Amino acid sequence: MGDHGYSGNLPPGFVFSPTDEELVLHFLHRKASLLPSNPSIIPDLTLYPHDPWQLEGKALSSGNQWYYFSQVMEKKVTENGFWKPLDIEEPVFCNAGKKVGLKKYFVYCNGAEGVETNWMMKEYHLCSSKSSGTSSCKKKKKSDCHEWILCRVYEREGSCIQNVGNSTDDDDGTELSCLDEMFLSMDDDLDDISFPK
User: Fold this and answer.
1) Mean pLDDT of the chain
2) What is the DSSP code (8-state) at residue 67?
3) Concatenated DSSP letters of 166-192
4) Considering Cα of 27, then 92, then 72, then 65, what sign does the dihedral take?
5) 177 domain-assigned
6) Do the strands 148-155 and 65-71 form a parallel or antiparallel pair, or are they unpaired?
7) Confidence at residue 196, expressed as pLDDT on a 0 to 100 scale
8) For residue 37, what pLDDT is reported?
9) What is the CATH number of the domain that holds 122?
């Protein structure tokens, strides 16, 4: 562990930049199947006890992303907030086109009132052993194979929350959502578009 946080067993100069397929097949599948991972670089943070900005030094750090294993939990509550599901699920496919995993998206919300932050998490899950062909999982109970997930946490660039200190005279005190800001920025472009009659 150096000044840049937990770097696992990576030699100097190496960067951890896996694809979704690699995260599911080479790391999560091996973890869930109790197979050795060489090198063993992604740590276990069994629960969700840490706020995202506290992952430095605890999770595998690569640039502005942090990776760790956890167990599947219903409530993803931390000391200062919680992870809110975004109801976005994407399949993860291998090169052969077979579905091997599932990726779920979460946003970190501060406080009990749930103010959304720029912190995001992608949660990687294994498919059922039947569809993913994970033969080593067939020997164990299904719940044993699918109790592990792999998390990738990162902070989005920019902020969708207006800065209180930069209020203008026409500011009525309401905050715009990310979608509102996107649609407002598109409004000027729509004036230049001519539609067929």
Assistant:
1) 75
2) E
3) G--TT--SPPPPHHHHHHHHHHHHHTT
4) positive
5) no
6) antiparallel
7) 54
8) 75
9) 2.170.150.80
Whether residue 39 is preceded by a cis peptide bond, meaning omega within 30 degrees of 0, is yes
- Residue 3: pLDDT over 70: no
pTM: 0.69
Work out how many domains the chain is built from and give that number: 1
Judge whether 103 and 124 are in contact, CB under 8 Å.
yes
Tokens standing for 1?
Answer: 């562990």
101 compared with 14, residue with greater pLDDT: 101
Q: What are phi and psi of 185, to 5 degrees?
A: -70, -25
Q: In what order do the strands lie in the sheet with 81-93?
A: 60-62, 65-71, 148-155, 115-126, 99-110, 81-93
> Are residues 148 and 161 in contact, defined by beta-carbon separation less than 8 angstroms?
no
| Alpha carbons 181 and 133: distance in angstroms, whole number | 44
Instruction: Decide: 145 and 126 in contact? Cβ < 8 Å.
Output: yes
Does a structural domain hold residue 195? Answer: no
Amino acid at 95: N
What is the amino acid identity at position 119? Answer: W
DSSP letter at 153 equals E
Question: Over 80: is that where the pLDDT of 83 sits?
Answer: yes
For residue 178, count other CB atoms closer than 10 A to its CB: 13
Is residue 190 included in any domain, yes or no? Answer: no
Residue 194 covered by a domain: no
Element of type H or E holding 21 = helix 20-22
Q: How many Cβ atoms are within 10 Å of 101's Cβ, its own excluded?
A: 23
Taking the CA atoms of the chain, what radius of gyration do you get in angstroms? 20
